[in-house]
Amino acid sequence: MQHPRQSALCDGKAYLYALCDAKAYLYALCDAKVYLYALCDAKVYLYALCDAKAYLYALCHAKVYLYALCDAKVYLCALCDAKAYLYALCHAKVYLYALCDAKAYLYALCDAKAYLYALCDAKAYLMHDMVKEALHLHENDADIHATM
Q1: Would you say 10 and 2 are in contact if contact means Cβ atoms under 8 Å apart?
Q2: Cα 102–107–111 angle (5° rounding)?
Q3: The dihedral formed by the CA atoms of 131, 135, 141 and 143, expressed in degrees to the nearest 10
Q4: Which positions ≥6 away from 2 have C-beta within 8 Å?
Q5: pLDDT tens digits, residue range 81-114?
Q6: Rounded Cα distance, 23 and 34, in Å
Q7: Kindly report the CA angle at 98 between 94 and 102, in degrees rounded to 5?
Q8: Residue 17: pLDDT above 70?
Q9: pLDDT tier at 21, thresholds 50, 70, 90
Q10: CA distances from 30 to 4, 15, 25 (A)
C-alpha cells in the first residue's frame, strides 16, 4: 500500500497532468478557433478577391462600353460628314448643271445673235440685189428712151 503522502503526490501529479492536458486542450481549442478565424478570413479574402475581379470586369465592360459609345459617336459624325459631303456633291453637281445651262444659254444667245446677223446679211444682200436690179432696169429704160 502506498503511503498517504505518496498517494497525495500521485494525485497532485495526476492533477497537474490533468491541468496540463486541460491547458493543452484549451490551447488546442484556441488554435482551432484561430484556425477557424483564419479560414473565415481566407473565405472573406477570397470573396474580396472575387468582388475585386468582378469590379475589374465591370470596369473593363464600362470602358468597352465607353469605347463603343465613342466609336458610335465617331461613326455618327462620319455619317454626318458623309451626308454633308453627299449634299455638297449634289450642290456641286447642281451648280455644274447650272453652269452648263448658263453656258448653253450663252451659246444659244450667240447662235440667235449670229442668226440675226445672218438675217440682216441676207436682207442686205436681197436689198442690194433689188437695188442693183432696179438700177439695171432703170438703165435699160434709159437706153430704151435714148434709142427712141
Answers
A1: yes
A2: 145
A3: -160
A4: 10
A5: 989 988 998 898 998 888 889 888 888 888 988 8
A6: 16
A7: 170
A8: yes
A9: confident
A10: 38, 22, 8
